[in-house]
Structure formats: C-alpha cells, structure tokens
Amino acid sequence: MIATLSLAPNHTSLCSQKKKKKKKNKSGRESEEKSKGLCFGFGKPKSTPLIIHHRPHPRTKLEALEQVVKDIEGSVEKGIRIDPEIYASLLETCFRLQAIDHGIRVHRLIPTSLLNKNVGISSKLLRLYASSGYVDDAHRLFDQMTNRDTSAFPWNSLISGYAQVGLYDDAIALYFQMAEEGVQPDSFTFPRVLKVCAGIGSVQVGEEVYRHAVRAGFATHGFVLNALVDMYSKCGDIVKARKVFGKMPHKDPVSWNSMLTAYVHHGLQVEVINIFRQMILEGCQPDSVSISTILSGVSLLRLGIQIHGWVIRGGHQWNLSIANSLIMMYSNHGRLEKARWIFNLMPERNVVSWNSIISAHCKRREALAYFEQMEKSGVKPDKITFVSILSACAYLGLVKDGERVFALMREKYKIKPIMEHYGCMVNLYGRAGVIKKAYSVIVDEMDAEAAGPTLWGALLYACFLHRDATIGEIAANRLFDLEPDNEHNFVLLMRIYENAGRLEDMERVRMMLVDRGLDY
Asked: How confident is the model at residue 341 (pLDDT cuts 50, 70, 90)?
C-alpha cells in the first residue's frame, strides 16, 4: 500500500490570517475616514489597458522560446542590429530544448559575415544541426568554417552527430582527419570517439583511441574511463569492462551506470543486482539513470516490485524517467492495470511516457485512444509512436485506421517512414488479405532493394495464409537471395504450391532444398 501525505482540511496559515486581519482593519479605517469627511474626491481610477490586456506568461519553455524568436524576427525586420551574444544564447537554448525548427529560424536571422568570423556561434549552430540529425547541414556548415582548427568543439559536435545517426565510419574518419590537421582534442573528444568505436564494434580501434587519450593526458579522466567501460561492454568484452571499472580511482554515478548498463546489455541479472547493491553500500546514491537501467534489466516481477518500493521510500516515484521505466516494467510483465495507474497519476508526461503506454496496449484498441489523447495534450508523436500505433492496427486488422495513421504521420507530422513503418503496413495489408497492396508497399512506396528479409518474409507468410501463389513466388525468390540457408522460406513456398495444386513446382522447390544441403 502506498501512503500519501495530505494536509488537514480548512488549514490556514498564520501569515494568511494576519493578512486578512490587516485587510479588515484597513477597510474599517477607510469607512471611518469617509464618515469624518477625510476622504479625497478622486474619481475611480481607470484600468490600465496594459494590465487589462496583459498577456499571460508562456506556460512552457518552448512557448517562451517561440515568443523570444518572434521578437527577434520583428527587430531584424525593422533593421535593428542584434548583439551576437543573443544569437549564441538562443542557439544554446534551442540545443537544450532540441528545438530544431526554432534553431533554423534563428540561423536565417544571423548575418553570413557574423557566422563566418564567429567560431562560437557557428559551432553552436553546427552542434544543434548535428544533434538533431541534420548531419548534411552540419557538415556543410563545418566545411564553410575558416578557423575550425582553433577549437575541438565543432569537430566534437560533428563526430557526435554522425554517431547519433549511425554513421560510425564517417565519425571515426573525421576523428583521424582531426588528428592529421593538428587540432588538439579535449576531454569531450575521446568519450565521443570511444562511443563511435562501440558503434562499429572494434576493440582494436577503441584501444588505439584510448592510447591517444593517455598521450594527451586523459588516462585517468572519469569521462574517458566511463566511455572505455561502455566501449568494452558493447564490443562484447565484459571482463575488460569490469577490469577498467575496478581500477577507477574515483567512481561517480556515471561510472556505476556504465557498469550497470554493461551487465544489463549482457543479460547478467545476478551481477546487475549485486552492482546495484554495491553502489548503495559504497555511498553512491542511485540516480534516475541507475534506477531506469536496473528496471529494464530485471526479468522477475518480484524484483521489479521491490525496486519500485525502494523508489517510493526514496520519494523518486514521479521522476519522469523512472515513472516511464516503471510503466514499461509493469507492461512487460502483463500488469497493464498497474502501468495505467502510474501513467494516470504522472504529474508530467513526455513523448516517452506516451510511447510507453501506447506500446503497452499495442494489441488492444486502447492504443488508438491513447494516441488521440496524446495529440490533444499537445505532445508531438515521433517515429516510435507510429511504429506502436501501426503495429496495433495490423494486429487488430484495422486497415482504414492504419492507412489514416500512416497518412497522418507523413502529411501532418512530416515524418519520413522508416523500415519498421513499412513493415507494419505490409503486415497490416497481409493479415487482412489485401496482398496486392502489401506488395505495392514494398515495390512502389519504398526502395524494393532496401527491403530486408523481415518485409519479404511477412509478405510470403501472408501469401501462404491467403493462398496467393503469384506474389508468393516473387517474395520467396527474393528471400532465397537474401537468406539462402533459411529452409523456412522454402517450406512456405512448397505449402503455397501444395495448396494451389502445383505439385511439380512443389517437388522442384524440394529438390532445391536438397541441392543446398538443407534438411526437410
């Protein structure tokens, strides 16, 4: 049972009582003065229009930023010169709020001459573009910088931007270009580059980068060692990760979180619990990252409930990240009523909160209801939101709703579909028996060459369910090229031919299995 603290009803502070008393005394004196003729004959003052029509302060940081950007745009239109520090401050705010649309508007206002000579402003703009996934714009800006070799900041930003969108080869190439051009790396360079090494899965390159860090004087730097632990873990060497962690002269919360994440990544649940206990015993208070990580790493509901109790006792249950993780933990164990209870009581919600609750109901109609609530609340859905919604539509056979949501994603929210979205549409049409539309998604709406085994496999299975031999043949032949050793695809095509009465074709596919050394 969760205990709640409530104030007694009719509770009034001493301060408010005194104010009421003063007010009462004041009104008494005024009436007394009136009776004695001491009141001056001033007319009732007119209300100040500025106060009457005063606009309320913006309710959110984004609304406040919108107002400031509008004011700056108005000033620039009137020919007023804006101080460079204002541009720098606005770009910093846009970065912190990840407000790329506002950042683009600010970019349009900055004079080209100022952008070319002011490294600080151009670097902050580059960082904003890179962190928002606008890597081409970031690189274009980077190429235009004439004095980019004076600081590691723009290089770090672009390396980080490449890593964020998965272009790890470009990121590591940029790091070695940085070294060739003689740009001095700083304490932020090496953690970013080690993250890139984790992305490409190369311990050898990661260890070379760490040797560079040692020579640059960052051998025992906390950020670098934490990134090294993470690199070893993601490259599969948990032993070396633990060895580096054990030798750290000072372990901060990030260090503990790196090791926690490493054990979760490798599915070592006993070690996850042990390191969490050790963290507490050594006096390091787990933060929202620690708790969210361990909640994602426990497979036993009993342990999850114990951690939830520990969170409540610590007063952290409404931390946004922790509440989101609790929703996911309970929904993963089928406790939807508990997930809904947490969601409904959350004092604030972000896109992750909505994605979590929608994903929890991806096999129920409630997913669509939550999506409508999300839109009404003003939270902008992202790619993950639409994957969950389209999955729900596919599972429930809601073809019209799926088509409406897919169109909404592209037209209203300007989100370019990714492979998962196309996969959901193929599954949606395939389950409903609209095989030609499912096939059309692959060959007409996206690059058919880019379609992987998942999409073609979903189409082949739909052809088997609905006995479509023509498109089934096309899907199977594509899968034979993509997955030549997957006998499941051959077996499905044989069954399609069997259902169609094409026994010769069925025997031909069986011989293909034999020739490829696959059992049947």
From this structure: very high
* Phi, psi values for residue 52, rounded to 5°: -65, -45
Convert 237-248 into a string of H (helix), E (strand) and C (coil). CHHHHHHHHHCC
Count of other CB atoms within 10 angstroms of residue 251 = 19
Mean pLDDT of 385-393: 96
Q: Which residue shows structure tokens 């940085």?
A: 178
Rounded Cα–Cα distance for residues 171 and 169 (Å):
5
> Across 78-228, where does the E strand assignment appear?
none
- Closest C-alpha among 404, 438, 401 to residue 422: 438
Q: pLDDT, tens digit, for every residue of 144-181?
A: 888 888 889 889 888 988 888 888 999 999 999 998 98
Under 8 Å between Cβ of 272 and 266: no
Cβ–Cβ under 8 Å, residues 421 and 387: yes
Q: What is the pTM of this model?
A: 0.68
CB burial of residue 431 (10 Å; 0-12, 13-18, 19+): buried
Instruction: Give whole-number Cα distances, 486 to 99, 293, 518, in Å.
Output: 45, 35, 8
- Between 296-310, 333-347, 358-372, the lowest mean confidence (pLDDT) is in 296-310
The separation between CA 2 and the C-alpha centre of its own chain, rounded to angstroms, equals: 31
First to last CA, the chain: 56
Residue 317's pLDDT is 84
55 to 49, 58, 76: CA distances (angstroms): 11, 9, 23
SS3 letters across 288-315: HHHHHHHHHHCCCHHHHHHHHHHHHHCC
Q: Do the Cβ atoms of 342 and 331 come closer than 8 Å?
A: no
336 touches 343 (CB < 8 A): no
Q: What is the 3-state secondary structure (H, E, C) of 198-232?
A: HHHCCHHHHHHHHHHHHHCCCCCCHHHHHHHHHHH
* Burial (CB count within 10 angstroms: exposed 0-12, middle 13-18, buried 19+), residue 436: exposed
Over residues 86-93, the mean pLDDT reads 92
Take residue 222 and report the two structure tokens written for it.
């906390």
What are the structural domain ranges in the chain? 60-181, 433-520
